[in-house]
Amino acid sequence: MSRLNERFTKLYKIGLVITFAYFLLVLFYDIHNLGTDRKRYLSEHYISQGVQETGATNLVASVLYDYRAFDTLGEATMILTAATVLAFLVPITKATMFGTPFKSIVNQTVKLIIPYIAVLGAYLILFGHISPGGGFVGGVVLSIIAILLTLTYSVEFSEYIFKPDQKKFIEDIGAIGFVLLGLLGIFTGSNFLSNGQANFGTGNAGEVFSAGLMPFINLMIGLKVSAGLAIIFNSLIKEK
Amino acid sequence: MIDIIFHLLFLFLIITAFFMVFTKDLSNSVITLPLFGAILVIIFVILQAPGVALAAAIMTAGLTTAFFVITINKTEYGRNE
């Protein structure tokens, strides 16, 4: 009886996988053939008019931080909420770390690689409206510095270099600065978080200080994501 | 030529995904995840989506692996040797 039961459960699992694969196949087939029979006005408008209207040569950034900037505000608020709730929930205890101490070659390599990571993160944030990248990706790269310090040395050392109060302060600066930059559009007589329509001067497309508010919004999101992810990681590693 | 490489990459993607799900050892599964992410990044670069490739590289190869390693370290897995 038990062998029959085992065989039945195995068949059940395989059947589930096959059903799911067939469902995904049908779904992707339908999505793939979606755009052939109807015109997509909005995406054609973004592609043909995006650079003139927003001044950003990276069209993904022009959608994220100009046309659909309100959605980006929601995503950034989600990370802020997650970091806040984790910092509340996790008790402040003595951190328990790995049982395996690293050799000195790992420590020296981490010391050597951290400045390059910092430069890469700053480049990704500041050039987010020109080349691929942006605030989220650059913020994650900057937060990896704190994560590497936590993994190789200890939580105490990482919190000695980057104090928790400083990280919370930086995250608050990012959160409040994003909303204040959005309110700047209302003061000039346009909508909330409007950038291209508010006549801030888009500048020459391709320069660093162009595309209106976009570099500053990128900077705020980068600060916020980097501090938030570092807080989340350090809070999770402290838990027993 | 690029078609052959493209389809080979898709094949490796499927192989790594199945290995990740059906392997017994949990640490093997965690280390296969950045491999899956690296193949996905190459596919994104061939499809000319560098922004998505950057995000996928950082998320899957960097952040997710660190989080999974920490999570497995916190559990009792592999300590009763």
Q: Can you offer a commentary on this structure?
A:
The complex is a heterodimer of chains A (240) and B (81). Chain A has 240 residues and is mainly α. Chain A has one domain (39-238). Helices cover 72% and strands 0% of the residues of chain A. In chain A, helix 4 (69-89) runs parallel beside helix 9 (214-238) and helix 5 (104-126) packs antiparallel against helix 6 (135-152). Chain A is globular and about 75 Å long. Chain B has 81 residues and is mainly α. Chain B contains 3 helices and no strands. Chain B has helices spanning 2-22, 26-46, 50-74. In chain B, helix 1 (2-22) runs antiparallel to helix 2 and helix 2 runs antiparallel to helix 3 (50-74). The A-B interface holds A 58, 60, 98, 124, 132-134, 136-137, 140-141, 144, 147, 151, 229, 233, 236-237, 239-240 and B 50-51, 53-55, 58-59, 62-63, 66-67, 70, 73-74.
Helices and strands, with pairings:
The complex is a heterodimer of chains A (240) and B (81).
Chain A: H1 2-32, H2 41-54, H3 59-67, H4 69-89, H5 104-126, H6 135-152, H7 155-161, H8 164-187, H9 214-238
Helix pairs in contact in A: 2-3, 3-4, 4-8, 4-9, 5-6, 6-7, 6-9, 8-9
Chain B: H1 2-22, H2 26-46, H3 50-74
Helix pairs in contact in B: 1-2, 2-3
List keywords for this structure.
heterodimer, A: 240 residues, mainly alpha, 9 helices, globular, B: 81 residues, 3 helices, 0% strand, membrane (chain A), cell membrane (chain A)
SSE order of chain A:
HHHHHHHHH
How many DSSP E strands of chain A? 0
Please bin the fraction of helical residues of chain A. over 70%
Whole-number total of structural domains of chain B: 1
| Beta-strand fraction estimate of chain B | under 5%
Mean of all residue-level pLDDT scores of chain A: 82
Family (chain A): Belongs to the CPA3 antiporters (TC 2.A.63) subunit B family.
Keywords (chain A): Cell membrane, Membrane, Transmembrane, Transmembrane helix
Organism (chain A): Paraliobacillus quinghaiensis
InterPro entries (chain A): CPA3_antiporter_subunitB, MnhB, MrpA_C/MbhE
